[in-house]
Amino acid sequence: MSLPPLSAIRVFEAVTRHLSFTRAGEELGMTQAAVSYQIKLLEERVGAPLFLRKPRQIALSEVGASLAPQVQQAFEIMREAFADTRGEVDRLLSITTVPTFASQWLAQNLGLFQIDHPEIAVRVDSTSDMVDLLNDECDIGIRTLAAPPEKGLVSHMLVKADFTPLLSPALAESIGGVKEPADLLKLPMLDPQDEWWALWFEVAGVPGFSAEGRPMSMLNWQSLLGTAAMAGRGVTMLTPALFRDEIASGRLIQPFPLLAPAGRAYYLVYPESRRNAPKIKMFRDWMLEATAFMRAES
Amino acid sequence: MSLPPLSAIRVFEAVTRHLSFTRAGEELGMTQAAVSYQIKLLEERVGAPLFLRKPRQIALSEVGASLAPQVQQAFEIMREAFADTRGEVDRLLSITTVPTFASQWLAQNLGLFQIDHPEIAVRVDSTSDMVDLLNDECDIGIRTLAAPPEKGLVSHMLVKADFTPLLSPALAESIGGVKEPADLLKLPMLDPQDEWWALWFEVAGVPGFSAEGRPMSMLNWQSLLGTAAMAGRGVTMLTPALFRDEIASGRLIQPFPLLAPAGRAYYLVYPESRRNAPKIKMFRDWMLEATAFMRAES
DNA sequence: CGACATGGATAAACACCCCTTATGCGTCGG
DNA sequence: CCGACGCATAAGGGGTGTTTATCCATGTCG
Asked: pLDDT grade, residue A166 (50/70/90)?
C-alpha cells in the first residue's frame, strides 16, 4: 500500500535516465556507492532486480522497465509543479494596505515600480482589516501604527501620519482667503469629530474649538475626505504627504505648515522570515526611495 | 530544477488529503510535530505558506492549492506503478531449466502446480545456457550439477542424473528380447559416443565396448533421444526417472535396473536472498513433494 | 463564564538512516 | 598484461528528521 522510500525512488528515477549509477550519482550530488545502496534498497523492497548488471553498463530489467516511465512521469509532474510555483511565488507580490494609502499614494506611484520591475506582478489588497502578515499569504503590508509592530515583523517607517487642514482654493477664496488658523472655524469642516481637529487647533493656539453642533460626515477614509475637500465641500484634516500632487497642482491648498503630530505613522511591514526574498527586497528598496522625500520634508 | 526534499513532499501530499497535520501524521506513522516540521521546511523552500492556519483547522493557501492536485497525481501514479509491480513480481514465477527437464518432466507436471496455485503465472525459459540466477531476473533454476552450486544460491537435489539403457518394446523384440547387457551391443545405439555408455557397460561387467565405428547422432537432449528410442530407432542412455510415464505405459522398456552413476544430479536452485519469497517457497515445496518418489526409488 | 478538549507551533535531545571513504572484483581496451 | 572503468560491499560517522514535552490559541461544554 505504501510507497518504497522516496529517496530510493528519486535515485531510481535518475538512474533510469542515465542508465549509469555513477552518472546518476553526479546528478544527485552523491557518490556512486550511495546510488548503489539506494538501488539495492529499492530492489529488496520491490522483490526483484530493477537493473541487470552487465560488465560495463547496466540495463533495465523487465520490472525496472515497467516502472521507469511511470516514475519518470510522476517526477516530471512534480518538477513542473514546483517550477511553476517558484515562478509564481517570485513573480507575484501581494500587498495589503490601508485604503487611504492605496488610493492616494500607491495608486499613483505603483506604475513606476512596475516600470522598474516589469517581471513582478503586484496585487494590492486594500482593506482596513489588519491582515495577519505572519499567517496569511500576503507579502507586504502598509499599515498605520503608533509604534513598530510586534516581533517577527520587520517594519520601515514611511511617513508620519501627521495632519494639517487642507481645502480647495475656491473655498478659501469664499471667505477672502485663510490668513490665520481661526479663519478655518468659519468654514464647514468635513468630519469635525476627528480628534485631529482638536489637536491641531490646540497646537495652533486657537482656543475654544468644539465639535459640538457641527455635522459629522463619516468620511472615514482620507481619500474620500480629500475628494470632498477638492470639491470645495469643506476643509478637512489630512496628511499632506499623501496629497502632495494635489497640493502641488493647486487642487488643494495647505494654508499653514503646522502639523498636528498624530503619534502614528505609515509603516511598511513584512515578516522577518522573508526579509531576503528578492521581490520583497526590491519592493522595500523602491518604496523607501520613492517615499524618502516625505520623511525629509517633515 | 531540483525538487524540494521528497520527504517533505510526501508529508505535504498526505496533509492535502486530510487537511490536518495530526491526521496526516497518523497515516504516515509519525507525530504531529514531525508533520509540522516538514511542512514548515517545504514552505521555506517554496517561499510561501502552503496552508493557512485557521483556529481549529487548516486550509490550503493559494500556492498550496495549485500544488496539491499535481502532487497528488504524481503520487497516485507512483503508488499505482509500485502496486502493479508488486502484483507482477509476486504473481509471475520465472523458471530457467535445462531443456531435458523442461520437455520431459516439467511440461507434464507443471499443470498440477498451476491447479494448486492458480494465482501464480509460470514462465519457463528452457535453455542450456547457465543463466546467472544471482544477476539475471529469474526466480528459480533447474540445472544439472556435479555438486551443490556456488555460494549465495540455495539448492535442492531433485534426482540423480543416473543413466540406464532404454529402448522400445518392438526393438527389443526384434532380437528376441534383451536378456543380458551384452545383447544391447547387437542394437543400434543412439549417441554411442555418450560417455555414459562406456560407464554403464563397465558397471554391467560387459568388456570391450567401444564407440569406434558406431554412428553418432548428436541428439544431445534426452527428450530427443527418448523420442527416437520410442520410435524404435535404437537403444539409448537415459535417466529413467524422467521417463517414468513412458516406462509405465510400455512405450519404453528398461531391461535392467542397473544405473550408471553419473555423479551429477538435477538441482533446484534459487538465490539465497529470495528464499523467503512466497512464490519461491510455494514452488520449491511443491516441486520437492512432486519429485519425492524419484529420490525414494533410487 | 471558566475548565477542558482540540489542533498546531516550538525547543531540545536523541536516534537512526544514509552518505562517504576505502577497497574489491570483473571486464574492456591499449 | 596492466590500467581504466563501473558496480558491489564494509565500516564508520555526520546530519536530518524524529520524538518528547510544553506552549498557545480557539472553540466547546457544563
From this structure: very high
